[in-house]
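Hey team,

Filing this mostly as a record. A colleague (T.K.) asked me to run one chain through the structure pipeline before their review meeting, and I want the input and output archived in the tracker in case anyone asks later how it was produced. No errors, nothing strange. Just documentation.

Input sequence:
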Amino acid sequence: MFLKKIFLTTACLLPIHLAFAQLPQDSRRAGGIAIIPLTASTTQVYYEQKPVLLSEENGQRYAIFGIPLSAPVGTLTLNTNNTPIQIEVKPYKYPEQRLTIKNQDHVNPNPSQLERYAREAKEQNTVYTSFSNSTWKSFPKFIVPTSGKFSNSFGRKRFFNGEERAPHSGLDIPAPVGQRVVAPADGIVVQTGDYFFNGKTVLIDHGQGLISMFCHLSKIDVEQGQTIRQGEILGLVGKTGRVTGAHLHWGMSLNNARVDPQLFLK
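Output structure:
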């Protein structure tokens, strides 16, 4: 498929002083984002045969790549329509979190609950693996979906009642039940639901594989298929699903990789 096998490191493409305007912060770690300047001849970028988001700022085109939380330290290769690109995933130590969950079903679900979880996870994965056209040329500016002091929760290795679970894939914002949650950027509401672990949930497609997720809501105020603008209300903070208290779980997925939402904020 590719005519050349010459590998480029983005270290030679990315000046340290470069300002990315509205683009996310460049943080090359598991769960981070790589902002990759492209040459004029590079019109397509792929990771594991799936397209990567492309954007333009001040006449320069970029690939905006979400690094999976599972990515090991070392070299990771993106394919293009001509020359493959390599990025270096740097070491990054996430903290640990140990929680006591009163509802044992949320720690060790029974077979019927596991079946429900598998069905719901499949529904959500269908959204995460989708790739729709964007209506924007330059990358959209993001705002905070609800007010509150951020906890340093993204990427935490979690233990529920002493049992290890998957790293935390979103940002928790503690807030009172009923506080408004707004869309951080324009998009289409592609899924809503009341899920076993995530509680009442809204997913927004911002285009090109960029998906935002809002969990544990007490109320959902949007419908699937609805166009939503930045700042419009999508629901209210709650404590539904697997929680220890009222908060908003804000997740961001880029090329089906869960990435740190704080990287989208200035």
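Quick notes for T.K.: The chain has two domains: 8-89, 96-264. Residues 8-89 form a domain with the Immunoglobulin-like fold (CATH 2.60.40.1590).
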